[in-house]
């Protein structure tokens, strides 16, 4: 079978993401990668928890003074909603509705960009307060943890945008369906990590 | 790999069944989303209300764990068939992650 075969909603397989061997391999490899990502973020969380509020004597920055819950709440809602919109995109992918999939991916990208905008605003605000990357062990651990998550958001956005642009004229086929599926898995994983960031870093930071 | 895909064209009934089943699943996802929003609201409200840390921290960690399980099993389809390898990889990651965090916190606490 040629991978560029045109399908109809009637002939489109139930699981287009792993119907081909290539799709199956990508699927397996990607979950292995997510297992590795879990460990990466765990080491950053462990470092953060160990160095939280630690710095040179007389350091005036603490999680309680620094973090603003309303901002974090908006960011959480944006990312959580973008997770649902990418579920919608995959719903339409499985129904072989390319246009609807692209539209929902576009919504996902816009929500992701809004999240990123708030994060840049937040970091910029901290730097202006003097809470820079090199200011203390606490600031380094914070920026590395939350910044690595932000970098994942950037990669996820770039990935989804590239897929949308590259396949705009191709439509859906069994070659690109696994690619869209994995990009959406990655996006969900970014939300999984954020759930722990807003709980462990921000909420537990404000509680003390 | 060129030979392992068998294109099956559905009859109208099969097609309608598939559409209905996937629409049902999508409704389930929206419900999951509503639960996640609800859990998030509880977590933020508890912190905002200013209860004792010993009371709030275990609960918000539990809420985070529940939310992540929903995300993994429903949004990332880990509840579907054919995810045995995925589970092995992810849980291996989670075990190492847990040990890493436990070790670091123990070292700091000592």
Summary?
With 208 residues, chain A is mainly α. Chain A has helices at 21-51, 63-66, 69-94, 98-129, 137-166, 177-207. Helices cover 74% and strands 0% of the residues of chain A.
3D architecture notes:
The complex is a heterodimer of chains A (about 210) and B (about 110). Chain A is an all-alpha fold and about 210 residues long. Chain A has a single domain (about 15-50, about 60-205), classed as Four Helix Bundle (Hemerythrin (Met), subunit A) (Up-down Bundle), CATH 1.20.120. Helices cover about 75% and strands about 0% of the residues of chain A. Chain A has helices spanning about 20-50, 65, 70-95, 100-130, 135-165, 175-205. The N and C termini of chain A lie far apart (about 60 Å). With about 110 residues, chain B is an all-alpha fold. Chain B has two domains: about 1-80; about 80-110. Chain B is built from three helices and no strands. In chain B, helix 1 (about 10-50) runs antiparallel to helix 2. Chain B is flat.
């Amino acid at each position: 079978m040629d991978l560029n075969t045109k399908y109809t909603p009637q002939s489109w397989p139930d699981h287009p993401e792993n119907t081909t061997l290539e799709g199956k391999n990508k699927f397996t490899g990607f979950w292995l990668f997510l297992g590795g990502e879990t460990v990466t973020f765990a080491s950053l969380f462990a470092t953060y928890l160990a160095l939280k509020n630690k710095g040179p004597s007389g350091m005036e920055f603490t999680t309680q003074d620094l973090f603003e819950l309303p901002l974090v709440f908006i960011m959480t809602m944006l990312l959580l909603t973008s997770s649902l919109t990418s579920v919608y995109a995959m719903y339409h992918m499985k129904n072989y509705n390319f246009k609807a999939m692209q539209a929902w991916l576009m919504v996902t990208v816009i929500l992701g960009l809004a999240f990123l905008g708030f994060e840049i605003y937040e970091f910029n605000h901290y730097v202006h307060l003097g809470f820079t990357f090199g200011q203390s062990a606490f600031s380094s651990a914070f920026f590395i943890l939350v910044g690595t998550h932000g970098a994942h958001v950037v990669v996820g956005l770039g990935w989804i945008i590239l897929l949308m642009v590259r396949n705009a004229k191709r439509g859906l086929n069994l070659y690109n369906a696994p690619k869209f599926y994995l990009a959406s898995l990655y996006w969900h994983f970014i939300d999984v990590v954020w759930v722990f960031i807003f709980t462990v870093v921000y909420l537990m930071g404000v509680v003390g | 790999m060129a030979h392992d895909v068998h294109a099956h064209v559905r009859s109208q009934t099969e097609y309608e069944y598939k559409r209905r089943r996937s629409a049902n699943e999508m409704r389930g996802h929206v419900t999951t989303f509503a639960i996640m929003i609800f859990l998030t609201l509880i977590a933020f409200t508890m912190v905002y209300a200013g209860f004792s840390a010993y009371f709030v921290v275990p609960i918000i960690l539990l809420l985070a764990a529940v939310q992540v399980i929903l995300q993994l099993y429903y949004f990332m389809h880990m509840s579907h068939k054919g995810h045995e390898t995925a589970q092995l990889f992810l849980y291996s990651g989670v075990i190492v992650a847990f040990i890493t965090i436990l070790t670091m916190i123990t070292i700091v606490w000592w």
